[in-house]
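Appendix B. Raw example, untouched.
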Amino acid sequence: MISSTTRGAVMIMLSAIFFGMMPFFALKTYAEGFDVNNLLLFRYIFAFILIALFCLYKKISLRINRKQFIHLLMAAIVGTMMTTYTLFKSYQYISSGLASTLHFIYPIVTLILATVLFKERFTVYKLMALLLSLSGIAILATGTREPLNTTGILWALASGILYAIYITSMAHPELKKLNSFTASFWIFGITGFLFLIQGMATNNINLEITPKALFYMLNLSIWSTFGAVVLFFNGLKQTGPGNASLLSTLEPLTGVVIGVIVFHESLDLKTLIAMLLILGSVLVVVQHKDSSKEILTAKSPEGSTPIRLKRHYLLPAISMFIKSQRKQGL
């Protein structure tokens, strides 16, 4: 039987794959004359409509309390608005490759926040997975030499820190009480509304939507927003913020695969090594089970008191049990 932790890990990995498809849909939409603000506006408006219809069809309750609304409001502002803004802002000063590397500081920050706030154990396996994933991402991002711009570096680092805060905030006990569709409904709605206010304030709303632009924006909303966010939030409940951030490093790997298949980019040895490192980090997270959870239940010789045995104590315990039976003449 598949454990809840394994199911959560699969959800996070699928979410990362869907998020990794985002640059493809975004670039295709940009080619149709849309800027970042309009793309994000329609992305979240379409996603909000989709999830509203889904919740209505499934009769999912959308009621939340005041505390949950405050947490969702902060998650929407920090996670879906500020993170995107700071990351795209960094592209104006440094290459997207360098910006992506700096953005992926968020697994480190997330692990620290999860350890401090939620008392998650920072194990050797998590450290190993972190080093593998960061090494792979760094290799993927290294390209031609470019002058370092302090402003761009700060924007990119800020995006990573903000995204780590978003992941950690979504693991709050109040939000864990919510259905993942309910939480996503409010996040999409709040974010879409905020981008609408921004567009109206700057008089920058593009309503000249071509069929191609509509096609790519709908796919962005369905796969890289609706599907990705719901899967991520569901998986986060099962895996915790630390493991979720490590498994999310599949996202840049998806970008590489799409680049090779769709844009016919070359797959050199450097990229292959980076892919293997990232996949290795994912395998470490998925395969490792916390030893504190690997507990077996037995009974005492009297048959009344349950004894909880860790696996690495199992053989000594069996040996002691056999000796005790011999002493009793059994």
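End of appendix B.
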